[in-house]
Specification:
Elements lengths: L1 H15 L3 E6 L1 E9 L7 E4 L3 E7 L2 E6 L2 E4 L5 E8 L3 E11 L5 E12 L2 H6 L4 H17 L4 H6 L1 H16 L4 E12 L2 H83 L3 H18 L17 H16 L10 H26 L1
Antiparallel strand pairs: 1-2, 3-6, 4-5, 4-7, 8-9, 9-10
Amino acid sequence: MLRTVVCRAGSGLLKHSRQTVPVLWGSRAQQRWASSLPVNTVVLFVPQQEAWVVERMGRFHRILEPGLNFLIPILDRVKYVQSLKEIVIDVPEQSAVSLDNVTLQIDGVLYLRILDPFKASYGVEDPEYAVTQLAQTTMRSELGKLTLDKVFRERESLNANMVHSINQASDEWGIRCLRYEIKDIHVPPRVKESMQMQVEAERKKRATVLESEGTREAAINVAEGRKQAQILASEGQKAEQINRAAGEANAVLAKAEAKAKAIRLLSEALTRQNGNAAASLTVAEQYVSAFSNLAKESNTILLPSNTGDISSMVTQAMAIYGSLSKTPSTTDSVTPETKELTLEANTVSETETNYDLSLILG
């Protein structure tokens, strides 16, 4: 008798446990395959990642775990079969109005999982359909808070808000929404054209700004180049003037030293024997040379009254020289420093005297 019951139970299990029928939900075009309700055959094998809800005499009794399970015929009946796998639901396309009154056509994909088979069985009539409708209404509510530009820029935050809102409502149903992804966002043709025009205008603006920045940088570089060139040129002129002034100073010093040396040699020569005669001869030669150059550079000539009396001119020059030569004899009793200063003064005086003589003879 027992063997006959087990055989009948095994045949019933093979006949009914793996039969599947399409279950419609959401929309007619969308189907999801799930195991049909198994018949109580005393011995039941529950597949992995499935939860079978058992009622005893119409009241919830327990949830069968995957593997071998035993039920009492007639009293126990499998009422619901819940899949514990992650479920992917395609949310149908719907229309929504953004904050700036733009009508959008949007659809998405919802990923969820049943955490509590008891709540999913007795908390809502059709949990998947309820979650789908909740996702559609939540999406319309979230889109109404954003403008069109922010909808495209803040997709991640929009998806996060969707998941948070769905989980708050589906917690009583034993369902956990894992993530929500927006697939497509369709805008009206006119809005799309205006968006394309806006993008083109933005790109033109960027190009104009970049071109102006390039022109500004080029002008700045040119101005900096000119500034550096002027600075370098002024520094070059400064160095040139310094070098020229140093050269002129050195030339003046060299000329003064040469003239001082010449005057010193001349004074030494005059102190020797027959020095006055030599000076007279030199004055006479310069006088004759000056007269030889008359009327070569100008037609106007100023001549002294005694032009032909060379001896009187020489005598006058020698008298001036004699009056100047008497002053050094009084410097013997002074200190060496005073002698040096007196010598320099005599040198200057002799220079002026020679200059005056040249003017007279000239």
